[in-house]
Write a structure and sequence with these properties.
Length: about 400
């Protein structure tokens, strides 16, 4: 029996520890959101099974161990219960977190009130923690993962793991929630661990330990596939950056360059070795006013994306126009840790646009402003004269012999 308790506790403890030790960035995956609650359940629940070992080998301290399990068993199922509730909220998005907290608090009070009114609080607390917390907690968790099984965002391997995880948790919920320690009254007098062993011939802890071992294996497999998926996405993103025709710069929060792609080198002439550790000042042309850069920093430090046309300078001193987009990158706490900048060389487009503007306002033969440009300047001058209440003179003359009457 000691070996069963040990494997039972070890399975849940390793299950919880594996979850808590995995990188926090994986929680961005909808499958793993709030999974730290599941990790805490595993660790605390695993500890309760190890306490059962001490109850057998150290019977002189039985009251201490009973008290520990009286506290830890409900706590472990509360973690699981809350995990199931918030998971359904994230999936259905119909209830607010305040509603969930109210439901959670009210539901948690019920077994506490029943226990305190009992003569044997240790036994009653264990039984009603299983009836009122373990059953809904395990069923909610099983249902949550069953729902995600039908999502198109997961691979076939992940869907199989999710289905197996859901079924196993459902079985564990029955074994840990309905099969309770024997008690003189109520359903616990009929369906309990003693009658189960008498009917099956094996202790209930063996079946619970088997479920715990399967859950631990599936959880580690799911975490591993999620990690591999994230790594695969990062590799694909890295390859996309390398072959992109737009220049890409990644800096830390202080603007120190950490990465540049090949397009940056082709566009500016600076190699990634030359750019690394510097700031984007190396391509600054000085064509923009200081207010331009102040607005840029205010925008990105507020968490927004800055977009604008800018004149930059290549390594050889040649100026070029670039359409620049700069966005902040945040960690899981929402704190800005770095910036990513993309730039497209639009020099030809801008020069062509300037040429078209010139053709629209300048005579191609004489290179003198045409009638359209005159109308534009005249309107501006008239508006300015009205605004500042000043006089405006207009002189019209003919270049052909300066005829009288035209001056």
């Amino acid at each position: 029996m000691l070996y069963i308790y040990f494997i039972y506790g070890l399975s849940f403890f390793s299950f919880g520890l594996a979850i808590l030790l995995y990188p926090k960035r994986l929680e961005e995956n909808s499958l793993l959101k709030n999974i730290w609650l599941l990790g805490l359940f595993g660790i605390v629940h695993g500890a309760t099974e190890w306490i059962e070992i001490f109850k057998i080998v150290e019977p002189s301290n039985l009251d201490v161990f009973n008290l520990l399990n009286f506290i830890l068993i409900p706590i472990s199922f509360l973690f699981l219960f809350y995990f199931g509730l918030v998971s359904l909220i994230d999936y259905y998005k119909k209830l607010s977190y305040s509603h969930i907290i109210i439901i959670f608090m009210l539901w948690a009070i019920i077994p506490l009130l029943i226990t305190l009114s009992s003569h044997d609080i240790y036994l009653t607390g264990n039984i009603y923690a299983r009836y009122l917390l373990a059953i809904p907690a395990t069923f909610l968790t099983a249902y949550r993962y069953y729902l995600y099984k039908n999502s198109h965002t997961f691979s076939e391997d992940q869907k199989r793991y999710l289905l197996l995880f859901s079924i196993t948790f459902l079985i564990y919920g029955f074994l840990s929630g309905f099969i309770v320690p024997a008690a003189p009254t109520g359903m616990a007098s009929i369906i309990n661990t003693a009658t189960f062993q008498e009917y099956i011939g094996l202790p209930i802890q063996l079946f619970r330990a088997t479920c715990a071992f399967i859950l631990a294996y599936i959880s580690i497999a799911l975490l591993r596939t999620s990690r591999l998926e994230v790594e695969s996405q990062l590799i694909q993103l890295s390859k996309a950056l390398e072959v992109s025709g737009d220049s890409v710069i990644i800096t830390d929060r202080n603007g120190i360059i950490l990465y540049t792609n090949p397009a940056f080198e082709q566009q500016t002439g600076f190699t990634k070795e030359e750019a690394y550790g510097k700031t984007p000042v190396i391509i600054k042309s000085g064509a923009q006013q200081q207010s331009f850069y102040e607005d840029l920093w205010v925008t990105i430090l507020n968490g927004d994306t800055f977009r604008s046309y800018i004149i930059n300078k290549k390594k050889d001193g040649e100026l070029y126009y670039e359409y620049k987009a700069i966005a902040p990158i945040t960690n899981n706490k929402g704190q800005i840790v770095s910036f990513v900048s993309t730039g497209k060389d639009v020099t030809e487009h801008m020069l062509l646009e300037q040429k078209y503007e010139q053709l629209a306002s300048v005579d191609t033969l004489t290179e003198i402003a045409n009638r359209m440009k005159f109308d534009e300047v005249l309107k501006y001058s008239v508006d300015r004269a009205k605004r500042y209440n000043i006089e405006l003179s207009v002189i019209l003359f003919d270049i052909d012999n300066f005829k009288k009457g035209h001056l």
